[in-house]
Write a structure and sequence with these properties.
Layout (H helix, E strand, L loop, with lengths): L1 E6 L6 E6 L2 H10 L4 E6 L7 E4 L11 H13 L10 E7 L3 E2 L10 E2 L6 E5 L4 H8 L3 E3 L3 H46 L13 H7 L2
Antiparallel strand pairs: 1-2, 1-9, 2-4, 3-4, 3-5, 5-8, 6-7
């Protein structure tokens, strides 16, 4: 079972989720999406909370209010951490999570410590925790099928974007060819005036054509 929450401190709202137990956490580690960010209480046992960033958000641009929501949810779901003040919550991209065969269930490390960030939580904010808990939805997730569906959707979006770019490039090339042809046509009828040629009067011009 996976627990889903909705954070409304950003627009559009962000999805935050976590495993119901440490066994479910194993699947979440394995199937984390590229846009997922993992949160955990530093040096204490806690839930593994994930933020699924909206398409316009990046790891380095997560709003502080959203970080606070995630951090408060992690603290509230830590037996020991929920009783303490001044906690440190660590977070990192899901792709930075490292799991080896000798690790205990739910235990993780990181590919790069440089990608791990920290947020300070002075105390539990019941207003935030209660707001998030009111949005809680519990459901079974077929992680493998969800992964397949996600990849299909991403590939379709990439193909559509590539087709759109190809169309735009073709239209640009067509426009440039038309401009080039127009310039060639104008040059065809341009006559250079000889600065040394005598200037003809109106009568002389008439006689010149007789």
């Amino acid at each position: 079972m996976v627990l889903f929450f909705t954070s409304t401190v950003v627009d559009p709202p962000a999805i935050v989720y976590m495993g119901k137990d440490k066994v479910e956490n194993e699947d979440l580690i394995k199937y984390a999406w590229p846009q997922d960010v993992w949160f955990h209480v530093d040096k204490l046992s806690s839930a593994h909370v994930y933020l699924r960033m909206p398409p316009t958000m990046t790891y380095d641009s997560i709003p502080q209010a959203l970080l606070t929501d995630c951090a408060q949810l992690v603290k509230a779901n830590s037996i020991e951490g929920n009783k303490k003040d001044n906690l440190t919550i660590i977070f990192t991209p899901g792709s930075n999570l490292k799991k080896s065969g000798d690790m205990a269930v739910g235990q993780v490390s990181f590919h790069s410590d440089k990608q791990v960030k920290r947020v300070h939580v002075p105390k539990r904010e019941n207003v935030i925790v209660n707001r998030l808990n009111k949005t809680k939805v519990e459901r079974d997730v077929d992680h493998e099928q969800e992964r397949v569906d996600r990849i299909k959707k991403e590939n379709a979006e990439k193909r559509a974007a590539a087709a759109q770019m190809k169309k735009a490039e073709a239209e640009l090339a067509k426009t440039r060819e038309a401009e080039k042809a127009a310039r060639s046509y104008d040059l065809l009828f341009e006559v250079e005036e000889d600065p040394d040629a005598p200037k003809l009067t109106g009568k002389a011009i008439e006689e010149d054509f007789m």
